Amino acid sequence: MNSKWMAALWTVLRVWLGVQWIQAGWHKVVDGFDASGFLYGAIEKSTGDMPAVSSWYAGFLENAALPNVQVINVLIPWGELLVGIALIAGVLTVPALIAGAFMNLNFLWAGTISTNPTLLLAAVVLLFAAKGAMYYGGDRYLVPVLAKKWAEWKQQHPRKPMPKSA
């Protein structure tokens, strides 16, 4: 099959995934968002005979997420929105896919199935598609420029050899 056709297919999947993220984040940004109820609900799902949330994750939510819920209330909606925009534009596709997959994993670990498995699978497939997922998008032009800048920086800042241990 022609690689440009596959790139077009990956682009359709990437844009679809971006739309899903924008839809998830837009109303949270516009209408406001408070993750407290979600976090308390996830912690509650970690109890009983058949908990839906692992105790280690409930501990993380209780000790790290809840005390910082105001930060989470900003990160989740804006993260969802920015991941969606990046995927639709095809700019910084790999970081956007990784960030989206990370959010999906956290939502799954919190006991929320919903569309998270589907979105996570789409992100993983697109990560494996690599260049094909970025062919029709801004990364096609941005990645070579960034690679050139990175190579120049590495040349100007060579690594110093590690000291030998005694």
UniProtKB/TrEMBL annotation:
Highest taxon listed in the record's lineage: Bacteria
Membrane-topology descriptor: Multi-pass membrane protein
| Record-linked InterPro entries | DoxX
**Where is the protein situated, by its record's location annotation?**
Membrane
Assigned GO CC terms:
membrane
Q: What is its main location?
A: membrane
Indicate the transmembrane segments per the record.
81-107, 119-138
Residue spans making up a coiled coil are none
**Which keywords has UniProt assigned to this entry?**
Membrane, Transmembrane, Transmembrane helix
- Note the PANTHER family from the entry: DOXX FAMILY PROTEIN, INTEGRAL MEMBRANE PROTEIN-RELATED
Identification of the protein by name:
Crp/Fnr family transcriptional regulator
